[in-house]
Design goal:
By secondary structure, the protein is an all-alpha fold. Helices cover 74% and strands 0% of the residues. The chain is built from four helices and no strands. Helix 1 packs antiparallel against helix 3 and helix 3 packs antiparallel against helix 4. The longest helix has 33 residues. It starts with a helix and ends with a helix.
């Protein structure tokens, strides 16, 4: 699920064609500055939010894995584990959409 905002940011960056995306040095400051000049301010802001949503998911993934492992070690019921993991994934999906779509405070 966390790859969705990453792929979305690549689509924004490449203008809708992944084949145009140059993965040689995508984190370069020069590449970002050139992209910022090429697109409108709202598009650049959306790209930044998509990247931030992806990074946030990467930062939180180890916590999710730890929770699943500890739940299994504690012997929680499989149905409970599945329900809780489904709830977490659903809220993550809503969070990612909100992260990218909300533009004002």
């Amino acid at each position: 699920m966390n790859s969705v905002p990453h792929l979305y940011s690549i689509l924004i960056f490449s203008g809708g064609s992944v084949k145009k995306f140059d993965n040689a040095n995508p984190k370069s400051t020069a590449v970002r500055e050139k992209f910022q000049k090429r697109v409108s301010a709202p598009t650049y802001a959306r790209w930044e939010r998509a990247r931030a949503a992806h990074n946030n998911g990467n930062e939180n993934f180890p916590l999710l894995v730890a929770a699943v492992v500890l739940g299994n070690l504690a012997g929680l019921d499989a149905g409970t584990m599945n329900w809780m993991l489904g709830a977490v994934l659903l809220t993550r999906a809503i969070y990612i959409l909100a992260y990218i779509e909300i533009t004002d405070r």
